[in-house]
Amino acid sequence: MAMRNNKSPSPEFDQYASSYASLLDDPVRNRFAHDSLHFHRRKWLLIQRLLKRFGMDMATQRWLDVGCGKGELLELAGSNFAEAIGCDPSAEMLSSSSNFRMEQQPSLVELPFGDASVDFVTAVCVYHHVHGAARTLLTGEIRRVLTPGGLCCIIEHNPWNPVTRAIVRRCPVDVDAELLTARCATSLLKSTGFEALRLEYFLYFPELVFNRIAPVEGMLRKIPFGGQYALLARAPA
Ligand SMILES: C[S@@+](CC[C@H](N)C(=O)[O-])C[C@H]1O[C@@H](n2cnc3c(N)ncnc32)[C@H](O)[C@@H]1O
Q1: Is the CB of 228 under 6 A from ligand 1?
Q2: If you measure from the C-alpha of residue 216 to the centroid of ligand 1, how many angstroms do you get, rounded to a whole number?
Q3: Ligand 1 atom closest to Cα of residue 109
Q4: 3 alpha carbon to ligand 1 midpoint, in Å?
Q5: Is 10 a pocket residue for ligand 1 (Cβ < 6 Å)?
Q6: Contact 93/20 with Cβ under 8 angstroms?
Q7: Which residue's alpha carbon is nearest to atom 14 within ligand 1?
Q8: CA 159 to CA 150: how far, in whole Å?
Q9: Contact assessment for residue 111 and residue 142, using Cβ atoms and an 8 Å cutoff
Q10: Which residues contact 161 (CB under 8 A, 6 or more apart)?
Q11: Angle in degrees, CA 124, 84, 89, rounded to 5
């Protein structure tokens, strides 16, 4: 794994940005879903349900997507919030035009926003690209920009799922990936002062099966073998 300086913007995803979609191309992934939008839709369905469950009125809240990449999740869901913003250390990932504000991070561990400036933060498939002490520093920054009692949702690949592991192993953009278990993500958030509220596993079935039996996936959400997991946590009040 290449060592990177947390203080300088990561060149890592700059080199992937122009061919990002083709770099994600994988025969097993393609059999699972007919396009990448399916994965973003599945995440949004889950996030939406979790926010409703914990009483967030999205229409009045400010959402920040940390490590937003090309901003696909913002494009899909941003209009549900009073404000939706993205940030990423990679200028090249951010260069695609978006209906939403997207800012470059000054470093891997700093967010370009004021204290208590957003109500909800997501970090989707970001933390497996963040290493060592930078994980804690980035989480501290997320806590700083969140309003007291604000919510944070981390979505990550599940290392307990063998298909996920095989896809990650083959994927060129994951050459530096260090997958983290849900337990590790929970400890990270708790050690930064967050209260863990809810952990759910998802992406058990391919798109065509899911479209027919979505409620069955819902019944499996506590079984730790879904392709990914979502962890919702609350910042200290
Ligand atoms: C696999 S992509 C995911 C992009 C987007 N969240 C999505 O789900 O499509 C990982 C992203 O995390 C970003 N990233 C890497 N290190 C980061 C850090 N320390 N802070 C924020 N974003 C980071 C990368 O630049 C890249 O855009």
Answers
A1: no
A2: 30
A3: 19
A4: 17
A5: yes
A6: yes
A7: 67
A8: 28
A9: yes
A10: 225, 226, 227
A11: 50
Query: Which region holds residue 159: left if phi is over 0, alpha if psi is between -120 and 50, else beta?
Result: alpha
72 lines ligand 1 (CB under 6 A): yes
Question: How do the pLDDT tens digits run along the chain, 237 residues long?
Answer: 333 455 554 568 999 998 998 888 888 888 888 888 999 999 999 999 999 999 999 999 999 999 999 999 999 999 999 999 999 999 999 998 889 999 999 999 999 999 999 999 999 999 999 999 999 999 999 999 999 999 999 999 999 999 999 999 999 999 999 999 999 999 999 999 999 999 999 999 999 999 999 999 999 999 999 999 999 999 999
**Which structural domains are found in the chain, ordered by start?**
23-234 (3.40.50.150)
Is the pTM of the predicted complex or chain greater than 0.90? yes
Q: Which amino acid is at 185?
A: A
Q: Ligand 1 mean position to 24 CA, how many Å?
A: 14
